[in-house]
Write a structure and sequence with these properties.
The structure is a homodimer.
Chain A (H helix, E strand, L loop, with lengths): L1 H5 L14 H10 E7 L4 E3 L7 E7 L2 E6 L5 E7 L4 E2 L1 H5 L6 E4 L3 E7 L3 H7 L1 H27 L2 H18 L7 E3 L6 H6 L3 H13 L3 E4 L2 E4 L2 H8 L13
Antiparallel strand pairs in A: 1-8, 2-7, 3-6, 3-8, 4-5, 4-7, 9-11, 10-11
Chain A binds a DNA duplex through helix 8.
DNA sequence: CGAGTATTTGATGCAGTTCAACGCTCGTGG
DNA sequence: CCACGAGCGTTGAACTGCATCAAATACTCG
């Protein structure tokens, strides 16, 4: 088991802060095992009281919330390194649902041991808080986008977020990244209709800025995207992982 | 100084988890002092690298982000008990601006000591993470609201959030609460225009559900609001404070 | 090959934006 | 003490970006 962790696929990505073997051993102790799930699997349910927490090791997923009237808001897309289930660990229950968009490998932790782990390893506790702060930052940006930007700006912003994360994780190749999400997921994240999102993507395709087709997103001109979205194109900051 | 903290105005509110004298002493050690600021003061600036952190003790404020083209998104309203500056403490800098909407009293902490405090007091560290998770929860709800709900639903949801927090803090009296915010702040929080928000508030006024006038919000029928917003009207869960 | 699902495109309608104007309140200065 | 202007709230009228409706085209899998 220890071998697993020391082989942690996150460890050598540039995006993540370097960890000593001792650090990894701490995490290893907390770790219960690894979990393979298939595309489409619901990992955590809104309102549920999950006994386990996860870190995504490989694959992608998404978090969403639903309204009684069937409307759905995608909160965030999940990439390797994301910590899943903090709300369940800290508060009573999850406030959103998590599903796998591809097959995924997850690092599994036990919620019952969370408090002990948190107490005994302040550096790790700090990392968890860091991740929570990063998430808070992202959600603030998303709120700004949905609340204030036009459809074209939103779409550009959304593609840029995805592309930038993929790039930081070495998931891009020649401006291409895998896009396992259904097109419906994207408007649900941006607060737009499917039809209008599709037409907007069409504009970006015509202008040869970005193309989403056949499960892949290819971004020919990231700075044009950034200009449309009215954000600076900066690299993602290094972040910890658990 | 110790006397201050033991007199902490948050301590005896029902909303907040009870803390022992020992707990308070820990926080007291971390505390640098109290700060009085006037209505309109900007406490933290987006992009700034603040040396201090705060907990709101009295008064109200708001967090917002701006776009280059002047558009503004209000991220959240600040009430007593809110922790301010976590992002600056953990990451390099603040991602949003914080301003006071009324005169405020703040509990001041030193960012340089944050790491030490976090390490030495795991229970407090846990509380901070809890607060971060609560914020994440709120932001997810806000995203759902702005992304998926109609104007009337959004306004009802927004009023309900404000009213519910005020109620949990004993700031209401006979269905009334103070509303120090300018009407522009509200549409900026909901992703609507000022004009349309005003007209929507007018509808709620006509229907005698809620009235916002002269710096006070009076909610005659909270469950009608909840029904319009399509949420359940439940009490806020007890939460920790720092 | 046919049924179900995802993407694309065209046509129509409306919720919410934008523009515009007026009223109220309060502070300032003549 | 009143005139004036600035800031905020309210209301009316016209416009438009995006939603909704509709339908055709691709793709997947039994």
């Amino acid at each position: 088991m220890t071998i697993h962790r020391l082989n942690c696929p996150l460890r050598n990505k540039e995006l993540f802060a370097a960890k000593s073997e001792e650090d990894l051993r701490q995490i290893e102790q907390f770790k219960k095992g690894e979990l393979q799930i298939e595309e489409g699997t619901t990992l955590l349910m809104e309102g549920s009281n999950a006994p386990q927490l996860y870190t995504a090791l490989t694959g992608m997923g998404l978090r969403y919330k639903t309204l009684p009237n069937e409307r759905r808001q995608v909160i965030n897309f999940i990439f390797p390194g994301d910590f899943i289930g903090l709300q369940a660990a800290v508060m009573a229950e999850m406030q959103h649902t998590v599903v796998a968009a591809t097959d995924m490998t997850l690092c599994v932790f036990d919620r019952a041991e969370f408090m002990t782990f948190f107490r005994n390893h302040p550096e790790r506790a700090f990392d968890i808080t860091w991740l929570a702060a990063v998430e808070e930052h992202f959600l603030g940006d998303a709120l700004l986008t949905i609340g204030q930007r036009s459809a074209l700006e939103r779409v550009a912003w959304g593609l840029l977020q995805l592309y930038r994360r993929a790039q930081a994780l070495d998931m891009t190749q020649g401006g291409q990244m895998p896009m396992p999400f259904r097109q419906q997921d994207f408007p649900d994240a941006l607060g737009l209709s499917l039809v209008h999102t599709n037409k907007t993507l069409g504009k970006l395709r015509e202008r040869q800025i970005a193309t989403w087709r056949d499960g892949a997103l290819s971004v020919a001109n990231p700075s044009a995207l950034a200009k449309i979205a009215d954000v600076e194109w900066d690299e993602l900051a290094e972040r910890p992982f658990i």
